[in-house]
Amino acid sequence: MRFKKSLLIMMTVLLVVVMAGCGGGNNTKQSAPANTGNSGTTVQKENDPANSTTPEETGLDHSKPLKLTVFSTTANYGGVQTGWFAKIIKDKFNIELDIVASNLTGGDTKIAAMMASGNLGDIIIFGDDKTHYPNAIKGNLLLDWNKDDLLNKYGKDIAASFPKATEKAKISFGGGTAIYGIGNNVASNPKGASEGKDMTWGPDLRWDLYQQVGAPEINSIEDYLPVLKKMQELEPKNSKGKKTYAFSLWSDWDGNYKLTLAKQFANMLGYDEIPDTAVYVKADEEKYYDFLSPESWYMKSLQLYFDANQMGLVDPDSLTQKFDDVVAKYKDGRLLFSWFPWLGAANYNTEENQAAGKGFALVPFKGELMYSTGFNVYGSNGVISIGAKAQDPERIMEFINWMYTPEGAMISAGSGTAVPNGPKGLTWDINADGKPFVTDFGWNAYADQQNTQIPEEFGSGDYYYGQNQMNFSFVVPAMTNPETNEPYDHNLWTTTLERNPSKLDSDWRDKMGVLTPKEYFVKNNLIAIAPQGFTGKEPLLMDKSLEQKNKQIGTVIQQYSWKMVFAKDQAEFDKLNKEMHDKVNGLGYTDVMEFSIKKAEELFEARKSVQ
Predict the structure, then answer these.
(1) CA 597 and chain centroid, separation
(2) Quick check: bond before 226 cis, omega within 30?
(3) In this structure, are residues 394 and 60 in contact, taking their beta carbons and an 8 Å threshold?
């Protein structure tokens, strides 16, 4: 999701950043590098956005530092925002961020505690709009953006560029008048797949090892296991002598309902979950299934991971480690499979590895149908809000508004789903033809984020921890920037696609017959786009009794899912599976399923508004 909620979103989704835990990075000083375009022509560095003395003319006083508490249910970093993003917003707005991440401090328990305190902070980020967001509204914990004409005065770009998103906020959660937040991944492009060069999911394998074992055709998801086993036997240890695995799982994305990493194959078959329900819904058809049913790819994934563990392909640290631990293992070359291109490739595909032909790349399976959310003019289900007790809401609104502008989007594009563009003049710039391009320094930063040190004048620290740690994708990165007529995502810039490919890229392109993974799926008609509509009514929500019942059921599913993956044999797996079903049925799973079907029908109705 970073990405967790974005995927479930999908991830939403994903989606989405490479996400990080606490840390400040190394502050080794460097001089700013020269910027060169693809032609090798040095480009005169323009005034960096961060060096502007004032933001747009709002008449606000920025002379005093404004320290904001950001409570994010999607962040995987806690503490003060440091590095290059901190420098940009400090110079531009005189704002400092202190991030509280419920993912790191108790999950739903932390969210409940914050709500009970009566103060959620200055900026609040919700991974979805299903439970916590409406509860916060009911508890009077969020500020109405229409109060004192806040949005129209200090959020003019949001109001002008994304009116459908504010309309949805007003009707769905504001009683037709109030606006308590705006969705993530907002877009103005109405059609097509919204992803960039890569899709949100893979699957990606260590391409070099896959080629060495003969690049066998993958006819089903289960076919990955024997192939991965051969790859593991070919490289049983990394360069440091540590054992390699196909799968390395982590639990800090699980929330309170399921083993999150057991849903990704459903996304690769054109389905996604409706958060906090019991159904997975097809992107482009009125079809859904119970995710605890035998045909569900949640249940099939548990079996797959169990089988993989029996083969020695699952990292035993999976039971106790966190996301950051897994990131480090990808970086160290200890893992062979990645669900997401922003995870495996982003951490292992350094320029050195790619030059040697080593790295992660897409290895699709027969029948794969990639789920895509498409361009959503209403915004996705993640929400950014302002706390009811926030001091100086005008400056907060001005800051949030900026994140939805071309200038703000160019800096953070990719955050939550991929590597962000970063500071203009350092990692990217504009060439003599007015086209954006990635600098040599930028390519190094994107490929080796944690080991790339940022010059002091741009904020110091490393690139990875310096990115926007709120873990919220404001606009769709694939959307066209009106100032450059190129997408925000640097992976889709013309200069990027025309850049000399690495040995790894050349080999992959030659064998796949396309330039990018997205092109592969589009060319072969293997994308299922989910229309992102709106019913024009308030969303259906669980009552308190069913919500509590659902949480109890979710806890049981999550606990048993992990036990099943690491069961000693098939007999124990089957026994645990039966126990899980018996327990959730006893807790009222039928009632949850009945509500879930209604949510699926609501979704189908919403889709009709954009068809």
Answers:
(1) 26
(2) no
(3) yes
Query: What is the rounded distance in angstroms from the CA atom of residue 10 to the CA atom of residue 127?
Result: 10
How many Cβ atoms are within 10 Å of 236's Cβ, its own excluded?
12
Q: What is the tens place of the pLDDT at every residue in 321-367?
A: 999 999 999 999 999 999 999 899 989 998 899 989 999 999 999 99
In whole angstroms, what is the distance from residue 344 CA to residue 245 CA? 13
Output the DSSP codes for 139-178.
Answer: TT-B--TTGGGHHHHH-HHHHHH-HHHHHHHHHHHSTTT-
Render the burial of 550-569: b for 16+ CB within 10 Å, e for the rest: bbebbebbbebbbbbbbbee
User: DSSP letter at 236?
Assistant: S
E-strand stretches of 191-285? 204-206, 271-273, 279-282
CA distance 377 to 605: 17
Q: Which SS3 state, helix, strand or coil, does residue 573 take?
A: helix
Cβ atoms of 18 and 449 closer than 8 Å: yes
User: Is the whole-model pTM more than 0.70?
Assistant: no
Q: CA–CA distance from 456 to each of 30, 400, 426 (Å)?
A: 7, 26, 12
Q: Identify any residues that bridge with 464 across adjacent strands, giving them in sequence order.
A: none
Token output for 172? 């769905």
H helices within 213-267, ranges in order?
Answer: 224-234, 264-267
The CA distance from 488 to 600, in Å, is 32
Q: What is the pLDDT of residues 388-440, one digit of tens each?
A: 999 899 999 999 999 999 999 999 876 544 689 999 999 999 999 999 999 99
Q: Measured in Å, how far apart are the chain's first and last C-alpha atoms?
A: 28
Question: Can you tell me the distance from the alpha carbon of 83 to that of 86, in angstroms, rounded to the nearest whole number?
Answer: 5
Answer for the pair 125, 70: CB distance below 8 angstroms, yes or no.
yes
* Confidence at 533, pLDDT banded by 50, 70, 90: confident
Compute CA distances 431 → 80, 409, 484, whole Å: 34, 19, 11
